[in-house]
Design goal:
The complex is a heterodimer of chains A (274) and B (297). Chain A is elongated. Chain A is built from 6 helices and 9 strands; from the N terminus they run H-H-H-E-E-H-E-E-H-E-H-E-E-E-E. Chain A is of the alpha+beta class. Helix content of chain A is 31%, strand content 23%. In chain A, helix 1 packs antiparallel against helix 2. Chain A has a 5-stranded mixed beta barrel. The termini of chain A are far apart. Chain B has 297 residues and is mainly alpha-helical. Chain B has one domain. Chain B contains 15 helices and no strands. In chain B, helix 1 runs antiparallel to helix 9, helix 3 packs across helix 7 and helix 6 packs parallel to helix 12. The termini of chain B are far apart. The chains are: A alpha+beta (274), B mainly alpha (297). At the A-B interface, helix 1, helix 2, helix 3, helix 5 and strand 9 of A face helix 1, helix 9, helix 10 and helix 12 of B.
Chain lengths: 274, 297
């Protein structure tokens, strides 16, 4: 009787895991955990696990070492996952688009999913042109992760002038030098490999958490110590601040937080993923 | 622990398990296929008779049967039980997550086409995997597998036979394998998320400037973060404060030893085998990467 019950519960554990994968891949919350390009794989895996579930639930009873232990593992995981998914909509909202001078303290928690529907497509709905004009100067659009990799590995290929989107993070040492970190989280596969890519920029006065569209260029960082030990990134991401270059800000515009704040795509030449 | 920290912890656990689930399922299905369709001794007959030949076959098998480390342990244990010689199974289990087209490509992309990093990563994985194939290669599967595994059978009655149509048998074995290995994935993800959320990054970064400390620091980070071998190159490439030799230590050790793998190794293998699975790769990679650090200055 106990073995039958264990089999049944293990079948339910498989069904729960499969259902989670399937449901999450179809929801607008997938990107909180995994790169959206993996959604089809999650869908297929979820479906396969759901199909395996009855086989596990109704297999013949017999000796199964560790049955209770593995059931406990799956129960714990499903409980944590339910909590994480339910709360995934609640992210700290940065200051909305407004003049920097008018920026105030951080906004309360909101659920962006409630405000706007999301899609599984990691790219913005309307792809902007790869260049922007401002004050008669041309800027190449790219994302902070692309800029980070180019600056680190092929600095000669960094556009002379560029525009990047990022969130302001204040560090004590940098602030004393009139600088702040411009950062954005990049996710290759899942949240476990999230890296908060940062550059120091002349944004010492910008409020913490503010999203900015920054127009500028790179210049060598004279004091690399300023880039050491950046403040912790969001969602337990590893923080990596470029120690060779800083962004010389030619203009900065406060903008609303993007629907998906993470960077999921990386290109090494124009048009960049922006 | 406040609610936001708990949420971050839960989200990282969820992300790790969901990311690994497809690979674990693939490994489980492959294990089910091996269990039901491969006749006893057939795998051994496919391999060269010599020990070096078997080790070489195991080292390169990932090019044909690619998987990440999450799917490797169930597949390797099933291969061992079906008679694949230890000399091929252990090198395949350790080298397969790196010596496969997907991982090689991701490393090449993360390091912007730097073949030196790709080739050194492969070499640093092949050496310990080959060494372990040599050390354990003359043993029988029953000498390295934990005795408790003898009773794990998908048929449920303990006979080990495939009841009913073969497809059902394959799927039943796959489900059993997924459940059995999934628990280790979950407990490994819990440990990894705990370190990721609560370990101050600055503590590791402070070691970055000294190669003798940077290498072990990155090895520790590889074990604690438990990033999938298909994505770890991007994480390593972003840690620009660390020298290249430390990057290679991270890239070589992570796919062979991390917090997802430790509980699985502990259950699948006997204790002395577990110890060499931990210490041989760690010691070899440490020494080789320190040497590389000295050569590169």
């Amino acid at each position: 009787m106990r073995a039958r019950l264990l089999s049944l519960l293990e079948g339910l554990a498989l069904l729960g895991t499969g259902g989670l994968l399937f449901g999450l891949a179809l929801s607008g919350r997938y990107w909180h955990f995994l790169n959206p390009r993996f959604a089809p794989i999650s869908l297929a895996t979820g479906l396969a696990l759901a199909l395996l579930a009855p086989l596990a639930a109704f297999r013949p009873a017999g000796p199964r070492p560790g049955g209770l232990f593995r059931l406990l593992g799956f129960a714990l995981f499903l409980g944590l996952a339910a909590f994480a998914v339910a709360r995934a909509g609640y992210v700290p909202k940065a200051a909305p688009a407004r003049p920097a001078a008018a920026a105030g303290p951080a906004e309360p928690l909101v659920a962006p999913e409630d405000a706007a529907p999301q899609t599984l497509d990691p790219r913005p709905a309307a792809v902007p042109p790869s260049r922007a004009l401002r004050d008669g100067r041309e800027y190449v659009r790219l994302n902070l992760a692309e800029l980070f990799l180019l600056a680190d590995q092929r600095p000669k290929d960094v556009p002379a002038r560029f525009v990047v989107l990022g969130q302001v993070r204040q560090g004590r040492r940098a602030k004393a030098a009139g600088l702040a970190l411009l950062s954005r989280v990049a996710v290759v596969c899942c949240l476990a490999d999230a890296v908060s890519c940062c550059f120091l920029a002349d944004l010492g006065q910008a409020p913490e958490g503010q999203w900015l569209e920054v127009y500028g260029r790179l210049e060598p960082l004279t004091d690399p110590k300023l880039a050491k030990s950046p403040p912790p990134g969001p969602e337990a991401s590893v923080s990596a601040c470029n120690e060779r270059y800083r962004i010389v800000v030619e203009a900065a515009e406060p903008v609303a937080p993007p629907e998906m704040p993470y960077i999921f795509e990386f290109r090494d030449r124009e048009p960049f993923a922006w | 622990m406040d609610l936001n920290t708990l949420h971050t912890f839960a989200a990282v656990v969820t992300a790790i398990v969901l990311e690994a689930a497809p690979f674990l399922l693939l490994g489980s299905l492959a294990a089910g296929l091996v269990e039901v369709l491969a006749p006893e001794g057939a795998l051994e007959r496919l391999l060269p008779a010599s020990l070096p030949g078997r080790i070489l076959a195991g080292l390169l098998a990932g090019l044909i049967l690619p998987s990440c480390e999450c799917g490797m342990v169930p597949l390797a244990r099933r291969l061992l039980r079906k008679g694949l010689p230890v000399a091929a199974a252990v090198p395949y289990m350790l080298a397969g997550p790196v010596v496969n087209p997907v991982c090689l490509l991701s490393t090449w992309v993360a390091y912007r086409g730097d073949w030196t990093m790709v080739l050194l990563r492969v070499a640093l994985v092949l050496l310990p995997a080959g060494a372990l194939g040599w050390i354990l290669g003359r043993k029988q599967a029953s000498e390295i597998l934990a005795p408790s595994l003898e009773t794990v059978e998908a048929c449920g009655c303990g006979c080990g036979a495939a009841h009913g149509p073969r497809l059902w048998a394959v799927l039943r074995h796959a489900a059993e394998e997924f459940l059995d290995m999934g628990r280790f994935l979950v407990f490994g993800a819990l440990a990894s998320a705990a370190f990721k959320v609560f370990l101050p990054q600055a503590a590791l970064e402070s070691l970055a400037g000294t190669p003798a400390l940077a290498v072990p620091a990155m090895m520790l980070l590889a074990v604690l973060l438990s990033v999938c071998s298909q994505a770890d190159a991007f994480v390593a490439a972003s840690l620009t404060m660390f020298p290249r030799s430390a990057h290679l230590a991270f890239l070589a050790l992570g796919p062979m030893l991390d917090l997802k793998l430790v509980p699985a190794y502990l259950t699948v293998f006997r204790w002395p085998v577990f110890r060499v699975l931990v210490w041989v790769p760690a010691a070899l990679i440490f020494v080789l990467c320190l040497g590389l650090g000295l050569v590169w200055g």
